[in-house]
Amino acid sequence: MYRYSRWGWQLKRRHSERKLLLGFPFCYSTPTPPENEKLASPGPPPIRVSITEMAGRGVFATRRIGSGDLIHTAKPLVSHPSLSSIHSVCYFCLRKLKPVTSSEDCNVRFCSQECEEQSKVFVAVERKADWSAYDDYCRTRGLKYPLLVKRLACMVVSGVASADCLDILQPASLSSEMISEMGEGFSLLQSAFMKAKARDECMAFLTEQWYINVLARFRINSFRIELAGGSYEDLHSLAAASVETEAAVGNAVYMLPSFYNHDCDPNVHIIWIDNVNARLKALREIEAGEELRICYIDASMDHDARQTILFQGFGFRCSCLRCSSGD
Ligand SMILES: [Zn+2]
Ligand SMILES: [Zn+2]
């Protein structure tokens, strides 16, 4: 049930290219190294968040943006490595790490002192509890969002995040069946903290309703992080090595990128080069006032498959120009 987090890459729209790319989703027109990248604006990003007629909030260009421009970057509110990557990426920024040689080193690792420093407080909280039952619950059921909930809970307990920090994001609408399935996760999370004798006053936020509210937001606002690696060769090898979710190093939720609406023929794409910090880039020229949209799913799918996944995963029927044309 938690399969539909936003995809980190989008396809260009031309038919010939789409066919070509069916088995090769990592296509960027110009794999420009970040340091040579042309920033759309040296100051604040050239965008504003406004209410749209059809889709609630949306992001709009405040001036003309050139094709290929980096519109803005974004740091996550919450992120977590996937369980399969937990020993091979930085526990904070998800940067890929050199493989460890000693088999006894099964602790989480960091790419830098800075990442270790930034995680210190919530990792200290996390280390006080035994998460084996909770992690097993995630692993056996293939769940990724409860890992984000666990990290957010540790961040709240340690005081580096507020319990309501995701409230501004839109929640998924949940069926009663989904809500009852979340009960087990909540009990495991709560009991891990209780067994660790967390102080009651720090735990007041941790109710089943909080757990459900947060999970409902992770469910439709999380991005699956696939690192592009910064070079075209890496994109090729990544694509060759990737089979569906295995390429993802983790998941993350952002503030501003969550306000972008979806389009099956997007004018903006979101990419990750070497860590969890997202880059929003213009796929073509964008005029002032135009809405900026990203593609939440694999754009190479046909019309019916896209509609099904968008409805099941995000709760809407897409009426973008591409869908309206029947493509
Ligand atoms: Zn790091
Ligand atoms: Zn569409």
Automatic annotation (TrEMBL):
<dbReference type="InterPro" id="IPR046341">
    <property type="entry name" value="SET_dom_sf"/>
</dbReference>
<feature type="domain" description="SET">
    <location>
        <begin position="45"/>
        <end position="297"/>
    </location>
</feature>
<protein>
    <recommendedName>
        <fullName>SET domain-containing protein</fullName>
    </recommendedName>
</protein>
<dbReference type="InterPro" id="IPR001214">
    <property type="entry name" value="SET_dom"/>
</dbReference>
<dbReference type="Pfam" id="PF00856">
    <property type="entry name" value="SET"/>
</dbReference>
<dbReference type="InterPro" id="IPR050869">
    <property type="entry name" value="H3K4_H4K5_MeTrfase"/>
</dbReference>
